[in-house]
Amino acid sequence: PFLHNAWMMMGRSQYMNGDFLGAASTFYYISKHFTWLPATVTEARLWEARSYCALDWLYEAEVIITRIKQEQLTSRQLKELYAFTAADFYVRSHDYERAIPQLREAARLAGKNQKARINFILGRVCAAAGRNAEAYEAYKKAGSQSASYRARLNARIKQSEVYGGADITPEVKALRRMTRYGSNREYLDQIYYAIGNLYLSRRDTANAITNYE
Question: What sign for the dihedral angle of Cα 25, 16, 121, 194?
Fold first, then answer.
């Protein structure tokens, strides 16, 4: 009665090991041979779509994603997996506007560690879509305490890249405060580079050069 779990574990292991074609084949096998377990079939189909996305077989991924109905997503885990897989497909298709709501849903449903990672991706996608204010907020959420220190630092620096305020003084002061923390000694180049970029974005080349140096 637990054989399907062994097959699912094997498929996920192949995916994590970079054997995406092998993973897709395993998940396809599961979807055909465990039809009396609808939730398992839905999960296998979504993982199959993720494998196709990793291979850049976007047509094959789209066929699966569009055929899965909302009523088949019977658990929080399946809803999160669907949202993340759909977002992956839309990002790879450069359809950022449709990826954003799926990433928001995936972040809402994810555990606290995965939530920070998805919000960071959401920030990048919002920035790519030209929605800088939303990107700023997503990076702010990504810099939560549940993330590693390096992840929080990267999120904070990314925030500065999408800062849209007319007066950059508060943002520059916040970044300068970070240079005084001993934990940031190894990352001073990144912080000063971010400050330089802020000045350059406002055409203040003198201050930009000072910080770049």
Answer: negative
pLDDT tens string 93-149:
999 999 999 999 999 999 888 999 999 999 999 999 999 999 999 999 988 767 788
Q: From residue 197, how far is each of 99, 108, 170 by CA, in Å? A: 28, 32, 15
For the chain, the farthest-separated pair of C-alpha atoms sits apart, in whole angstroms, at: 70
From residue 191, alpha-carbon distances to 21, 134, 141, 198 in Å are 41, 22, 19, 11
DSSP per residue over 164-176, as a string?
--S--HHHHHHHH
pTM over 0.90, yes/no? no
Judged on CB neighbours under 10 Å (0-12, 13-18, 19+), 111 is exposed
Tokens of 164: 């849209």
